[in-house]
Write a structure and sequence with these properties.
Layout: E1 3-4, H1 6-20, E2 24-28, H2 44-48, E3 53-55, H3 60-72, E4 76-80, H4 91-96, H5 101-104, E5 114-119, H6 134-138, E6 144-146, H7 151-163, E7 168-173, E8 182-183, E9 197-200, E10 205-209, H8 213-226, E11 231-235, E12 238-240, H9 244-254, E13 257-264, H10 269-280, E14 290-294, H11 305-308, H12 312-322
Parallel strand pairs: 2-3, 2-4, 4-5, 5-7, 6-7, 10-11, 10-13, 13-14
Antiparallel strand pairs: 1-8, 6-12, 9-11
Length: 326
């Protein structure tokens, strides 16, 4: 199988979806001629034409509104928002229309749209280009929130999102776009949504993360392993609705739950997981549920952002402390 980066895998999935289904259309700012700000859509306009790959004005509310209208009329639009910090104008359409379409029409209409956006920090971008507000989106009933962590999962999860009959916000870890390569076969096979993936088996502590933060989480698991602490690493993948069964099963095995996310601590999605473990897995716990997160500040720019994001050292320290509980 060919090796490719995460952004190349996204491009491959988009091309596959468009080739398999003529109702799939792509739209957004500079997605056509320029191939998108991160080149995720490069070559699609040339292959599928300007009627299916649409360059839009600089208007995120317009992009999301067009997606809702297209989806209601039988198309499967995939809209691109250039950075997650620009997604806020889309909330009107996501909250008031996309997420309510099935309920509002009593199932007569659904809203099979995908809204893609780069997620998180790590590329030293200015303000509004490094947001991690996935918890805000996960709070919206009727909306799926999905985040890949590798080229393989990017391909399979994006195909699943496009084929899903309901709206999906698909968040792409910016600093993983070209960070590493993985083997991706263009076989058209989707990965299951609403399913967490156990990336590494362990017995002493469950480490849960998603997106780019999985990179540091996996490195921390390696470091803890050298100390004799075997961590089980879980990629949440779909944040809404998320796979409670896999989380609780892992915590029942290890007795410890460490949650790592890049987003600010207060109201972050890690708190939702912690609440679930407290409600349904309390008797399994050998130590308090612990979170390693970003800070309750606007993410700083340039080099300072490295001090904001969870580091391997912070994760290892938290894991080591948790394992001191008997």
């Amino acid at each position: 199988m060919p090796e490719m980066t995460l952004v190349e895998a996204l491009n491959l999935a988009l091309a596959r979806a468009m080739a398999d289904d003529p109702s799939v259309v792509v739209l957004g700012e500079d997605v056509g001629l320029n191939g998108g700000v991160f080149r995720a859509t490069v070559g699609l306009e040339k292959r599928f034409g300007s009627e299916r790959v649409l360059d839009t004005p600089l208007a995120e509310l317009l992009i999301s509104g067009l997606c809702v209208g297209m989806a209601a009329q039988g198309l499967k639009p995939v809209g691109e928002i250039q950075f997650m910090g620009f997604i806020y104008p889309c909330l009107d359409q996501l909250v008031n229309h996309a997420s309510r379409m099935r309920n509002r029409t009593q199932g007569r209409l659904t809203c099979p749209m995908v809204l893609r956006a780069p997620h998180g920090a790590g590329i030293r971008a200015p303000e509004h280009h490094s947001e991690s507000t996935e918890a805000m989106l996960a709070h919206i009933p009727g909306l799926r929130v999905v985040m890949p962590s590798s080229p393989e999962s990017a391909y399979g999860l994006l195909l699943a999102a496009i084929r899903d009959p309901d709206p999906v916000v698909f968040l792409e870890p910016t600093r993983l776009y070209r960070a590493a390569k993985g083997e991706v076969e263009d076989n058209g096979e989707a990965l299951p949504l609403d399913h967490a993936f156990v990336l590494r088996e362990g017995r002493d502590i469950t480490m849960i993360s998603w997106g780019a933060a999985l990179k540091e989480t996996a490195a921390a698991a390696d470091a803890l392993s050298a100390e004799g602490i075997l961590a089980e690493v879980v990629d949440l993948a779909t944040l809404k609705p998320y796979d409670e069964e896999t989380i609780l099963s892992s915590v029942a095995k290890t007795g410890r739950c460490l949650i790592v996310h890049e987003a600010a601590r207060t109201g972050g999605f890690g708190a939702e997981i912690a609440a679930t473990v407290a409600e349904h897995g309390l008797s399994s716990l050998l130590a308090p549920v612990t979170r390693v997160t970003g800070y309750d500040t606007i993410i700083p720019m340039a080099r300072l952002e490295q001090h904001y994001m969870p580091s391997v050292e912070r994760i290892v320290t938290a894991g080591r402390k948790m394992c001191q509980f008997s």
